[in-house]
């Protein structure tokens, strides 16, 4: 019986692909898409997964603590060089509409007694990022929602403005619900219709076709080019992929959009942060029609 069991197990293991086949790029992308069905990966997930203990929080897979002693290296980078942190798991809420209407309603969920507000001149121009604490409408100093950071898009000459509010994923639903209530944005403007989640086996079947001779060839699309799977962003960690992600108020025209995982966010700490950004980023030439 033991011999038969060993032979049976050996046959099952022989069906597994070799490491070279499993590490092919075309299979890796399909596998990564399959593993993100419950917890979304950040763009830097692979780098962190090799060096950090990963935890699953707020619908994301995040690096919690390093696997080796790197605290002194991080401290040295913060004090003498530059340390970069990936904060892309923070949720971005975008508001569009007339400036007067935006400021009028936003004043209900914050107070000048706590410091800066959305109406601060330095922040309203779009040159600086502001931070404040949000409360439920007309409930200050009670019913605090949580801290947020915001930045205005610089003026372009029109009365319509664009505002980005960055919130922690644990506070997103409460703050989004309060924003929709004060602006009366109840009608969805756009609905996210994503492709159904396919399994790893289905992804491989779509990419490779097994011929009768046993040879494998890559599937070609309509244009005749070799099909290459792309990474699928299935909503984000705090939103169901089949829910609407943009709402509009018919009376005022204010639009609230959920831009989570669409705008990446990084934090640079250290005396060399500005010089690194200067060497990395290059100003694009503005072309006017």
TrEMBL record:
GO cellular component: nucleolar ribonuclease P complex; ribonuclease MRP complex
Pop1 N-terminal domain ranges (all copies): 4-97
GO biological process: tRNA 5'-leader removal
Superkingdom field: Eukaryota
InterPro entries xref list: Pop1, Pop1_N
Name by which UniProt lists this protein: POP1 protein
Taxonomic placement: Eukaryota, Metazoa, Chordata, Craniata, Vertebrata
């Amino acid at each position: 019986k033991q011999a038969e069991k060993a032979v049976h197990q050996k046959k099952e293991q022989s069906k597994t692909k070799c490491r070279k086949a499993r590490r092919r790029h075309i299979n890796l992308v399909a596998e990564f898409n399959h593993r993100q069905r419950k917890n979304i990966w950040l763009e830097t997930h692979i780098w962190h997964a090799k060096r950090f203990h990963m935890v699953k929080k707020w619908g994301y897979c995040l690096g919690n603590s390093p696997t080796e002693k790197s605290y002194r290296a991080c401290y040295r980078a913060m004090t003498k060089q530059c340390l970069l942190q990936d904060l892309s798991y923070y949720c971005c809420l975008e508001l569009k509409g007339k400036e007067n209407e935006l400021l009028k309603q936003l004043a209900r969920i914050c107070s000048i007694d706590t410091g800066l507000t959305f109406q601060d001149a330095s922040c309203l121009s779009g040159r600086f990022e502001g931070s404040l604490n949000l409360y439920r409408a007309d409930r200050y100093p009670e019913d605090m929602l949580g801290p947020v950071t915001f930045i205005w898009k610089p003026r372009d000459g029109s009365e319509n403005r664009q505002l980005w509010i960055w919130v922690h994923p644990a506070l997103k639903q409460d703050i989004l619900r309060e924003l929709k209530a004060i602006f009366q944005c109840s009608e969805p403007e756009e609905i996210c219709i994503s492709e159904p989640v396919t399994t790893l086996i289905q992804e491989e079947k779509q990419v490779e076709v097994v011929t009768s001779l046993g040879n494998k060839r890559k599937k070609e699309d309509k244009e005749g080019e070799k099909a290459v799977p792309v990474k699928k962003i299935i909503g984000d960690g705090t939103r169901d992929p089949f829910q609407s992600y943009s709402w509009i108020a018919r009376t005022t025209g204010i639009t609230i959009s959920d831009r989570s995982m669409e705008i990446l966010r990084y934090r640079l700490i250290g005396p060399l942060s500005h010089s690194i950004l200067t060497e990395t980023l290059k100003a694009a030439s503005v072309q006017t029609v």
